[in-house]
Design brief:
By secondary structure, this protein is an alpha+beta fold. It folds into two domains: 112 residues, Uridine Diphospho-n-acetylenolpyruvylglucosamine Reductase, domain 3 (2-Layer Sandwich); 198 residues, Vanillyl-alcohol Oxidase, Chain A, domain 3 (3-Layer(aba) Sandwich). The chain is built from 13 helices and 21 strands. A hairpin with a 5-residue loop joins strand 10 and strand 11. Bound molecules: flavin-adenine dinucleotide. Flavin-adenine dinucleotide (FAD) binds next to strand 5, helix 3 and strand 12.
Amino acid sequence: MAVRTVKTVRSSVWRNWAGNVTARPARIVAPSSTQELAEVVRRAAAEGLKVKAVGTGHSFTTAAATDGLLIRPHRMAGVRGLDRGAGTVTVAAGTSLRQLNETLSAHGLSLVNMGDIMEQTVAGATSTGTHGTGRDSASIAAQIKGLELVTADGSVLRCSAEENPEIFAAARIGLGALGVVSEITFGVEPEFLLTAREEPMPFDRVMADFEQLVAENEHFEFYWFPHTGNCNTKRNNRSTGPASPVGRVSGWVDDELLSNGIFQVACSVGRAVPATIPGIAKISSRALSARTYTDIPYKVFTSPRRVRFLEMEYAVPREAAVTVLRELKATVERSGLRVSFPVEVRTAPADDIPLSTASGRETAYIAVHLYRGTPHRAYFTAAEQIMIAHGGRPHWGKLHSRDAAYLAGVYPRFGEFAAVRDRLDPDRLFTNDYLRRVLGD
Ligand SMILES: Cc1cc2nc3c(=O)[nH]c(=O)nc-3n(C[C@H](O)[C@H](O)[C@H](O)COP(=O)(O)OP(=O)(O)OC[C@H]3O[C@@H](n4cnc5c(N)ncnc54)[C@H](O)[C@@H]3O)c2cc1C
């Protein structure tokens, strides 16, 4: 296909969701097929432009930023194939997780696990290792059965456990460093029901029972409210039904009014007058009451996130989670820090992806957030020092200060990823400042 047909958007400033990253690409294009994508990659390489595909900009890091050619995803979206027998769905890389989940549901199918939201693209989400919480089921990338990659010379490579297996192993979480993902095949299951049990619980009880809560539930997570001893816990387990979704009114009160509308106001007050934050945290942590509901998976896993924030998240060995959380609580208490956002804690089983934050080890995720516009450095640095003392691995899409020297030490398969990258992109067509920092060149 002639390159003239590729939609070229007049270059402008690109911004991420949180508004903390901006980039001025030399050119922005929106290809609508794998062929067009391969063509724009070849042309950029010939012109000496670096290349970066973006998703919906939900990363807090500069992972997607470029001053070269920026490839937008929206014209490469939609389902390309659904194989019930094999239990797979194949989608174009720019498909949103929302579209994927809704389409699957319309066919009586589902992913096995999801993160907190579904605004991201499938390629963007998997490229940074986006995950939810799970005892047995891992990240979204771990559900990939095959993918198609446009590499630096413009060739189209298919990979799976059988075809180009060493590239497949690495490219499921490829940080955009190995090429542009054009299509992904996910493993899916017949749609099932999950019963969610949300319940406030004291911090000390969650710490004492953490291993048991993880072991006894398919999906356990909790939020701890800094300046308080209060947590909100959530346990999701498969159910035989019947479905009993959150009521329209109570759902709106909990998920829109309390978790977004009033929370937004509370965060704004806290940002203007930080001394009010501990008091607000005590009220916020008691605002949500216990509830139980049963629904299809994506409606249980995900919820709207309208309040804009900055986030840092570390994966630590699961056995270190309680120690890390106690240290974090003690640090907040003895410092003058004022933290308006809860700390989110999730888990994942060990997986086999070289740059997965759960690669080869049972993992607990500990995420710290601050309302956008609040100075975040002191809090995030203090939290990061605790995480790295326990061999923490930062989420690739969330703020952190680690470099390749550190990361090579906490990822036993770092060299394996680097070797695949050297093979596929020796001239670093797909690099940017972020990759130079985290991968070393
Ligand atoms: C409100 C909010 C909630 C979130 N919730 C979670 C959560 O529950 N769990 C979690 O783990 N993370 C979560 N995140 C982080 C988010 O899922 C990741 O940062 C994810 O990468 C964002 O996807 P995106 O489509 O916006 O991609 P972008 O942020 O636009 O890009 C991410 C990376 O993917 C690369 N990329 C994009 N498309 C391609 C492609 N076609 N080929 C190759 N590389 C590509 C980009 O170059 C970049 O390196 C959340 C973020 C926000 C803002």
